[in-house]
Design goal:
By secondary structure, this protein is of the alpha+beta class. It has three domains: about 5-100, Rossmann fold (3-Layer(aba) Sandwich); about 115-195, Dna Ligase, domain 1 (2-Layer Sandwich); about 200-410, no CATH class. It is built from 16 helices and 13 strands. It has helices at about 15-30, 70-85, 95-100, 100-110, 135-140, 145-155, 175-185, 240-255, 285, 290-310, 320-325, 330-345, 350-360, 360-370, 375-385, 390-410; strands at about 5-10, 35, 40-45, 60-65, 90, 120, 155-160, 170-175, 190-195, 200-210, 210-215, 260-265, 270-275. It has a five-stranded mixed β-sheet, sandwiched between helices. It has a four-stranded antiparallel β-sheet with strand order 6-9-7-8, sandwiched between helices. Helix 1 (about 15-30) packs across helix 10 (about 290-310), helix 1 (about 15-30) crosses helix 14 (about 360-370) and helix 6 (about 145-155) packs across helix 7. The protein is globular. Bound molecules: adenosine-5'-diphosphate and magnesium ion. Adenosine-5'-diphosphate (ADP) binds near residues 166 and 197.
């Protein structure tokens, strides 16, 4: 019986809080998992950025990646690792690169999801210098009136980049005049025009991590630190299951292992509006009360994948979803079948059994970790990176107290009034989704 070490690499950028808690939790868990006659142990290390030989080996079994969507050196190193060194990574870098918001809308429309009516328009401006640009536009670009599209879709509509994220350049447009202005300002960006879900009564963000899902009631009008609300019981029977299946279907279709899906509810229908968020917001400054769940989800899924050496799904396989989409069935029945594909692909049953057998102490260890100065320091460091100096202590306490509320409730305490929030003069950077 040999002792085997599985190496988990964290490919990080501005992340501070979740990796610190992930590392601390892995240390506390001190796992020794029997797999096929051997004992599997884990080492966690942060991936560095440096020149690499395409033929050099990769020392990691699994990489949790937070850079692919914008940092190309790491993305290409990861691709080499997958192609040449049997590396497992979340998320699949080709899928992140190729499937922007537009693709996700089209694909999920094809599967029958009620995506609000969405158009795409050519951009207002272009990069100069391409000699082909003028003849192309002169010959083929048809004049159009953006307000006429608004009339067709209905007002208000949302104008947002087809490859959007982080609320960049998203405008609610109420009439023709506002549409002309927003289009003018959109400059070289290729925009979607999307019907607003007017008067929605609930907004939910469902985070998916492998087969794990978690729904949060989201308040888009609140400051960033209050958008993930601490509301409970905001879903009616069956709705959580529905949103779980939607998220699993999307993630599995694109082979994303962590992503978040935003849906708006109106008149009995959940409209998914933004679900191209692979590498979702994982910061305590947004998630606070919900942060321990996410850290646990990171640990569970990476330990499961690394311990079992689950093969990474390198290519997408859309055909089985389209086979179901073709059937003459009500959407809910199709959704059941899509979700079944996802559950099989994510090995949901094996995963549950694995967690039950080998990670039964995770809840308690997480609970303990989030009572320590070590965890509080991780929170403070993230707050210090984002908030002005005079707000650091106040917001550290705010997020910490929300986490303490989670701790008390997870040990059976009844809900008490959450600590009062406060305004911030923090300049955005907005998180990714
Ligand atoms: N169709 C829509 N109906 C109502 N609100 C919308 C719609 N599309 C976008 N929004 C609002 O705009 C915000 C940003 O749009 P979203 O598509 O999520 O872009 P991003 O990818 O930048 O997060 C959403 O969180 C929501 O508040
Ligand atoms: Mg969004």
């Amino acid at each position: 019986m040999a002792e085997i070490t599985r190496r988990i690499g964290l490919s990080l950028g501005a992340d501070i809080c979740w990796p610190a808690c992930f590392e601390a939790l892995m240390k506390r868990l001190d796992l020794r998992i029997p797999v096929g006659g051997d004992t599997v142990r884990f080492e966690v290390e942060r991936v560095t950025i440096e020149p690499f030989d395409l033929r050099q080996p990769v020392k990691y079994d699994l990489v949790v990646d937070r850079l692919t969507h914008w940092f190309h050196t790491s993305r290409e190193w990861i691709k080499k690792g997958i192609l040449m060194n049997d590396l497992y990574v979340f998320n699949n870098p080709w899928s992140v690169q190729a499937n922007e918001k537009h693709t996700t809308y089209c694909a999920m429309m094809a599967l029958g999801m009620p995506i609000p009516e969405t158009w795409m328009a050519p951009p207002k401006g272009y990069e100069p210098g391409n000699p082909d640009l003028k003849p192309t536009l002169n010959r083929y670009a048809k004049l159009f009136d953006i307000a006429k599209i608004g009339d067709k879709i209905g007002w208000p509509m949302f104008m947002k980049p087809y490859d959007g994220g982080g609320w960049r350049a998203v405008t609610k447009v109420d009439d023709a005049k506002a549409a002309y202005k927003a289009y003018e300002e959109s400059d070289k960006a290729v925009m979607h025009l999307q019907a607003a879900v007017k008067g929605f009564d609930r907004f939910v963000r469902c985070i998916g991590f492998g087969p794990q899902t978690y729904c949060v009631s989201y308040d888009a009008s609140a400051p960033l630190h209050d958008r993930y609300t601490m509301d409970r019981d905001f879903l009616r029977p069956g709705e959580e299951d529905h949103l779980r299946k939607i998220t699993l279907t999307i993630n599995s279709f694109f082979e994303w292992e962590f992503n978040s899906c935003e849906s708006l509810h109106k008149d009995g229908v959940w409209y998914p509006i933004d679900f191209a968020n692979p590498c979702p917001d994982s910061q305590v400054t947004s998630l606070h009360y919900h942060f321990p769940w996410l850290v646990k989800a990171y640990v569970r899924w990476s330990v499961f994948c690394a311990a079992t050496k689950r093969p990474m799904r390198k290519n997408q396989e859309w055909a089985p979803f389209y086979e179901i989409a073709k059937l003459d069935l009500p959407f809910e029945e199709k959704l059941d079948r899509y979700a079944k594909i996802a559950l099989t692909r994510y090995q949901a049953d094996e995963f549950e059994e694995f967690c039950h057998k080998h990670l039964s102490h995770l809840d308690e260890q997480t609970w303990e970790l989030f009572g320590t100065e070590e965890a509080k320091t991780a929170v403070r460091q993230k707050v210090a990176a984002l908030f002005p100096a005079h707000e650091v202590e106040g917001f550290t306490e705010l997020f910490w107290n929300r986490i303490q509320m989670w701790r008390m409730e997870s040990h059976g305490a009844p809900r008490v009034a959450p600590p009062p929030s406060m305004p911030s003069t923090r300049e955005l950077p907005q998180e990714r989704d």
